[in-house]
Structures are given as C-alpha cells and as structure tokens.
Amino acid sequence: MANETSPPASQQADSVVFLTNGERFLEAFAHVGHRVCGRRMQPFSLRHRFWLEAFESPLVVGGQATILDLEMAAAICAVPFEKLDTVVPRMLRSGPSLFAKVRFAMRCLRSAAGKEYSAWQDYLTDYGCPPAVHGSAKISKGGKRYVALPEILGLVTALIRGSGWDPDRVWSLPPGAAEWYLTGIFMHRGVDMKVKTTHDEEFEAGLMAEKAAAAAKKAADAAAAAAQN
Q1: Contact at 8 Å (CB) between 40 and 129?
Q2: 0.70 cut: is pTM over it?
Q3: Which one of 71, 100, 128, 145 counts the least CB within 10 Å of its CB?
C-alpha cells in the first residue's frame, strides 16, 4: 500500500465541493460523528488545531502527508478538549507505545490510505467552514502580506475581545463556528465586512471554471502543436 495519504493534485481539484454560505453555516454548527484510522474523533476545536500546528502536521500546515502523519493527527483529535493539554505533551514525551506500534502496522496492512484521508478531510470540513466574505489581507508596496499574529491566535484573541468570553470557551470552539461568530461581531460593530451572497459565489465559481477550462485548452493545444512538430 502506498504510504502517502495526500491524493494527486488533479484528484484534489476534482474533489473540491462548492458550498454556499448557507451550507457553510450549517457545516460550521451542525456536526456528525467521525472515525479516522479506527479512532472516534472528538469535536474539532481551535485547541486541537493548535496542537496539530505545534506538531507541524502537514495535514493542517501543508505539505506531503504520510499515513503516519494521519495516524498522529487522528490520535490527537481523539483526545477530548479538556484533556488535550495534559495528554498531548505526554504523547510527545513518551512516544507511541508498543500496542500503538502494532496497531499502526496492522492498519497499514489492511487500510486504504485514500479512504482514511477522505475521512480526515470530511472531519475537518465538518468543523472548519468559515463564511466567505469580501475583502483581502493588507499588502505592502513590495507585494508582501503581513500578519501581526499567528492566524489561530489572532482569531482567538479577537473573539475573546469581541465576545467577552473566557479563553477556555473560545479555544473549545470549532474553527468554522469561531469564524462565523467573529464575522457577526464585526458586522454588528460596523466593520466594512460583507458576507458573500450565493450569486456572488456562483459567479466567482463560474469565472474560476472558465479560467481552468481555458488553461486546459491552452495546454492541450500546445501539446498538439508539439506532437505535429
């Protein structure tokens, strides 16, 4: 079995599902049960995301992921929120137990990596659908984008300030729900932030599809011309 969990880029493009903001809202707040690598996933919180980033998991920070990365991510996300800060550091110090190593080896023999990767993507999508809004990040004259804080910390601190909630409550929120709450707070405070309408999103999706089709045609024409020569 191939050890890579990330599908080819072409398959990733084909698997992209267009969601309207109405559907994104439902995904952010209505959840179902998930199992990844044989483990029952806990509700995905900002704190789970923090620990995955701390481990530099390619499943959240980007990069080519292996079945071992997926196994580690699933182990972290199977830990309840209230136990994360004690269990995960212990996992880091002690490493996998003999039972965990045997379990992992057996899973490699009988599991399809692509199926587990899809289950992981479904899990993240279920908890991580923020609203699509108009606007862009500030860009310097040199074309560089600047972020004052790590993205996850910026979200947490902004929501604490805007809602008055205590940090533990904010850290326990699913990322998508946190984004929706913060967007609502900004809009109520008069910030120039507009949630995209279904028409806006369909129009943008159409433009992207046309651009992709034009690029594919250009590549096909170039290949045909090269073959004739």
Answers
A1: no
A2: no
A3: 145
